[in-house]
Automatic annotation (TrEMBL):
Subcellular location(s) of the protein: Membrane
Transmembrane regions listed in the UniProt entry: 34-58
Topological category with respect to the lipid bilayer: Multi-pass membrane protein
InterPro entries in the record: K_chnl_Ca-activ_BK_bsu (IPR003930)
Provenance organism: Cichlidogyrus casuarinus
GO cellular component: membrane
Annotated PANTHER family: CALCIUM-ACTIVATED POTASSIUM CHANNEL BK ALPHA SUBUNIT DOMAIN-CONTAINING PROTEIN (PTHR10258:SF8), CALCIUM-ACTIVATED POTASSIUM CHANNEL SUBUNIT BETA (PTHR10258)
Protein name listed in UniProt: Uncharacterized protein
Example of a GO biological process term: monoatomic ion transmembrane transport
Assigned keywords, A-Z: Glycoprotein, Ion channel, Ion transport, Membrane, Transmembrane, Transmembrane helix, Transport
Length: 219
């Protein structure tokens, strides 16, 4: 009788140990799975962040790093027929008037050393330097490198794409009036290329004198 009872107790203990072992294995597997998912999430998240940084920082930097600083003088502008666009975030389709703006460019080397620091250049002073220089370029203005890449064929200076076309028109008129008022502003150019100029570099350590940036192509 006692022997049978001991065997029964032994079997129950063995079952308890077996269940405990099985439970620990399940917990261990769950921990491994959770750890794997966490690592996969971190790796995929890092990859996504890297892609975003590459698109927002590295590519613009590589595209803009060849441009060198100078000064630009707003000359004139003209509106052409509207262009269709699609907002990248909302995917809303809209349109904006194609505004072509022209400017005159002079590199920093054409100005005295004091002109390269925080200093305001008047329209009259700019024209005085321009008359003496053989490095003057007549160009089309673009709001940014992205605008240049998207609208270089049409030569549109600015391409806002809000849901309402009227909002785009108002923003373009504000953009135009801003440069009509300031006339002279900071800009950048490729030293050995007479087809492109940039007035504000996104990744530059230099402060632009305006809140917008421009890229230009020669006439």
């Amino acid at each position: 009788m006692n022997r049978n009872l001991q065997e029964l107790i032994g079997q129950q203990k063995a079952q308890v140990r077996k269940k405990a072992t099985l439970r620990s294995r399940i917990i261990s597997d769950q921990c491994v799975r959770a750890l794997y998912m966490a690592c996969a999430t971190v790796i995929s998240g890092s990859a996504i962040v890297s892609c975003i940084l590459l698109h927002l920082v590295m590519i613009p930097y590589l595209s803009e790093s060849v441009y060198e600083p100078g000064w630009c003088h707003y000359d004139r502008s003209q509106e052409y027929s509207s262009r269709q666009c699609e907002n990248k975030c909302s995917k809303d389709r809209s349109s904006f008037p194609c505004l072509r703006m022209q400017a005159t460019y002079l590199p920093d080397s054409e100005f005295p050393q004091s002109s390269k620091t925080s200093f305001s250049l008047s329209s009259r002073t700019f024209k005085q330097f321009a008359r003496k220089s053989d490095k003057v370029r007549r160009l089309f203005i673009y709001d940014s490198f992205g605008t240049y890449a998207a609208h270089k064929v049409e030569q549109c200076a600015y391409g806002p794409c809000h849901k309402r076309a009227d909002d785009n028109t108002d923003e373009i008129h504000q953009f135009k009036h801003r440069y009509e008022n300031i006339r002279v502003f900071r800009c950048y150019a490729r030293p050995y290329n007479w087809t492109e100029l940039l007035a504000y570099k996104v990744c530059s350590t230099l402060e632009a004198h305006t809140s917008h940036g421009q890229l230009f192509t020669i006439l």
